[in-house]
Amino acid sequence: MKPLARWLAAALVLSALAFALSSYHNDVYRKLLLWVTLALGYNFLFGVAGQVAFSHFAFYGIGAYSIVILTFQAGLPLPLAIVAGVALCVAVALAVAIPSTRLEGFYLALATLALAQLFIVVLNEGGAVTGGAGGLADYRLPAILGVRVTGPWYTVVIVLLMLGTMALLARLDRSWFGRACRAVRDSPEAAAAMGVNVARTKVIAFTLTSALAAVAGMAYAFVDNTVNPPIFGLENAFLLLFMVIIGGAGRQAGAIAGAVALYLLPFVLSPLIGHHHALVFGVLMVAAILLQPRGLIGLYDALRRRAA
Amino acid sequence: MRDLLELAVSASATGCVYALLALAYLVMIRPTGIINFAVGEWAMVGAFGAFLAVTKVELPYPVGVAAVLACMFVVGWATERIAVRPLVRAGAPLLAPILALLGMLVVFRESVALAFGPDPYPVPYPLGFGRLELGPLAGSYQSFFIIGTTLATFALAWLFFERTLAGKCFAAVAIDRRAAALVGIDRTRVAALSFAAGAVIAALAGLLVGPNVSAHYLMGVPLAIQGFTALVIGGVGRVEGALLGGLLLAFAEQLTARYAPLPPGYAQGVPLALLMLFLLVRPTGLLAERGARA
Q1: Can you tell me the ipTM of this complex?
Q2: Is residue B227 part of a domain?
Q3: What is the pLDDT of residues B121-151, one digit of tens each?
Q4: Could you tell me which residues come within 8 angstroms of residue A137 by beta carbon, excluding any fewer than 6 positions away?
Q5: Which residue among A102, A114, A279, B139 is least enclosed by CB atoms within 10 Å?
Q6: Cβ–Cβ of A114/B222 closer than 8 Å?
Q7: B284 touches chain A (CB under 8 A)
Q8: Which of A100, A109, A286 comes nearest B83 by C-beta?
Q9: What residues make up the domain containing B51?
Q10: Which residues on chain B are in Cβ contact (under 8 Å) with A99?
Q11: Across the strands, what pairs with B133?
């Protein structure tokens, strides 16, 4: 019962925070929670399963766009639109992962980089369906069973999504599948010799985390109530990778620390250097790999060991 | 038919740029095993270098280009010293330097963005702007200049790898790193030189494509993707593969854009489609490595 109590306490505290914040800070808080959700999923894909993919953020975008298009253009009810959107993402993820994982190395990185670029092209060229360069706007979260979730209550939905993702991935990490993923990351040959189906493990990890990103994207679609191509560009795909590496890949605490640090850093830096915080991220990334490959969380461990 | 031949000249020129980028990847991958996605940013830096040296400082074109390429040699060397060598020396997995180079990619791009802002800058034409007709083949001066320069670069690269002792050292390190070290080849020097050469070749690609697209700080990533796709198509085993892959990719792209009934933006999907096709059907690329690895 104890872990369950801890999850409940976390949900209560994080939700209560939403009611204490102003509506501007609620907006910042929601986006922070979504970044943490994305970083947790990417941590599993990159940190645990060892796959360098640049498509995670594109799947976030596919989720956001598909929910808007399916609900407001195709007229599907929300639950059905969610299921159809996830199914679409699973299909795209399988189409990319199956050919890429036939080979080791960086073919996945390249294929997903090309996919992320192609996604932006489709958004810009999609005409009335995707709204072109301006994207889609002027829609609102439909009422579910007569209830319209708004304001801090919508933040609560995102808190639950984030904690749900975290719980699912933490459980998965400790399961047979999580160990198989780590084995495949560290040595595909050894994993295969132990009876792990390497290709299938890779494809499942990629598809599952991509679907989780899509669900987070669906939640995002109703945060700003607008989706447009620049939001889902490659910049953010890199940022996600940097968050996980700077925070500490392979550990949930690292992903959370990295996401919080890099999301909040521009707020601190913008009075000093304007919009050029990406330069700082790049330098931090190189420094992290060279000096502290375990990231912020490794730094924390080292400090605590010294204190003890 | 005239239309098709004109298309062939411009597609060959574009393909040559992809081929140079693929060659830049190749000279680094062969001896070190490291895929350096920053080649696109190096091409971008090369294009900005040409703007600075030739348009701003008004050096004559050959002198300006030589100065830019010399600077890029140092940039490539320094990149290897900073982001690769410490990790290789510490015995980190191959992924670590590749990720560090992704960080360097952002550092390069954002430094240029900081220095030049988001506006595009004109890159000079070496031969001026004009049109050349060689029998049935017609195209801009720049297209023919790109094709000529690329063929010369590939000829030099081929001679280097096939005919010189230093080139044989590269090949030896590519085949078996430990054995190469045992026969007295300095692996760290080969690695540093391969990065320096990669930076020079990538910058050359940027110099050549620059006049057609203008220097812009975001031009790097598409070039990095197209260059790597060309490499996958041609295969990493042989220098000629890069050239073949680049040409094939450019022809596929331009023929699709010209003749397929698709909105123009979708031609950008051609690299992805080709890449998927090759990964499924012929993962070693078109030209397989000669039997050295057995």
Answers
A1: 0.82
A2: yes
A3: 888 887 777 777 777 777 788 888 899 999 9
A4: A131, A225, A226, A227, A228
A5: A102
A6: no
A7: no
A8: A286
A9: 2-120+139-281
A10: 276, 279-280
A11: B138
